[in-house]
Hints:
Low-confidence stretches: 1-10
Structural class: alpha+beta
Largest sheet: 5 strands, antiparallel
Mean pLDDT: 82
Order of helices and strands: HHHEEHHHHEEEHHHHH
Strand content: 5-15%
Radius of gyration: 23 Å
Number of strands: 5
Amino acid sequence: MTDKKLFECPPKQLYKLSNLINQGVISLDDLAEIIPGILHINSRKDLALEYISKEGCQILRYSLEELQTLGAAVFEKHQCEFTRTITYPKLMKEIAKNDPNHVIPFFQDWQYEEDERPVFHFTSTKILNDTQLVSISLFPNRIEYLTNTVNRLFGINRTYDKYFCQYKKLTKREKEVLDYLGKELPRKEISHMLFIDEKTVKKHCENIYRKLGTSKRTELEKIAQAFSTI
């Protein structure tokens, strides 16, 4: 994929990530662990880093507290003049349009020391809320992996939302049986795990199917995985 195509096809999955963060479905630290690249939250006012993943701290050679203290001044120290005087003003102009659905892709650099060559990152950013931006910085060849990961996570979230009310109607024992069904265990093995008769497991399964409103085992497994993950 060429640089031009990267700009023509920004990773729209960043929109899904911002929804997950705003809904409180998953914490920033947990989200940062399952996606490639560097997750960071920046101030809309001056792009100062307010959060960055542990991996990002390691790459930048700063702690999160140090970056928060330095604010936007860190860019003066570690980024080239082109990034600071050309790229960032263009970025701020796009942000000023106040379009929460717009994902803005761009390249930026990071220079550890004056005598070292700068490291370039491909970054995608969008408005998270009234005061913050959510961004992911990564190497271009990792975008496809990011897409697959986020789509899987977002699929789990949709299943959770769809069956939340029905799931609350299950008894404690039915939830335990459902959890084992999600692990693709047969009824006989579930009966051994829960120390109950296999006929009792069968009855629990019938109740689970009825209460959740589905007759498909594959759908039941998706539901079980959604409620054991979130």
